[in-house]
Each structure stands twice: as structure tokens, then as C-alpha cells.
Amino acid sequence: MLMTSVFVLGWITFSKMDPIVGLYADDTLLLALTVTALEKLLHACECEHTWLDMLINCKKSFCLRVGQRCDAVCANEVNYCGQSISWVQR
User: Fold this and answer.
1) pLDDT tens column, 3-54
2) DSSP for 22-41?
3) CB atoms within 10 A of CB 42
4) Three-state secondary structure call for residue 5
5) Which terminus of the chain has a lower count of CB atoms within 10 Å, N or C?
């Protein structure tokens, strides 16, 4: 399962600062430098989950910003299958 998921996400063209996909049991961690890169990763997961007939529980999922600008308000809304994933401060 791990190799399949990583391979499916491999079709996205990354810059030299690649996003990170962490998988453990039934948990997935997506790390990206930009909201746009995060949306691309999430869309790849959405395509794979659709093929596997699975869904992410958006009520248990969240986005978190870290770094110098972590306290800046992010107007970008991140969506998965038409549902919004909320931004949190901590």
C-alpha cells in the first residue's frame, strides 16, 4: 500500500524543494511549501481515493501553517471532494 500511494503521487512535477508525503497505518501527512503545492498533492490523493472508493474525513482533517508568516491570515480555501478543510493556529 505504501509503495502504491507514493507511486501514484509521483506524477506531479515538483520543484527542487519537493513536498513530503508521510504515510503511517491509515494516516496521511502532506507537507508543502505553498498552498498551491498542497492543493496539487490533495488533488492527487483525491484521485487515488476515488479510484480506491475511499474518502478523507474533512471534519478530522486540518491545514496548519508554520514559519515566519504562520500568524498571517490565509485566504486560500483548501478543498477535498467539494468539502473545505479548515485552517488552524495550533
Assistant:
1) 334 433 444 444 556 677 777 777 888 888 888 888 888 888 888 888 889 8
2) EEETTEEEEE-SSHHHHHHH
3) 21
4) helix
5) C
Angle at 62 between CA 60 and CA 63, to 5 degrees: 170
CB 23 within 8 Å of CB 6: yes
Q: Grid coordinates 506524477 are at which residue?
A: 11
State the cell numbers at 68.
Answer: 515566519
Q: How far apart are CA 40 and CA 6, in angstroms?
A: 14
- The DSSP 8-state label assigned to residue 86 in this structure reads E
Q: Which long-range contacts (CB under 8 A, 24 or more apart) does 39-42 make?
A: 39/76, 39/78, 39/79, 40/12, 41/9, 41/12, 42/78, 42/79, 42/80, 42/85
Q: How many domains is the chain built from?
A: 1
Look at residues 83, 44, 88, 42 and name the one whose alpha carbon lies nearest to residue 62.
Answer: 88
- Please give the residue range of the domain that contains residue 60: 2-88
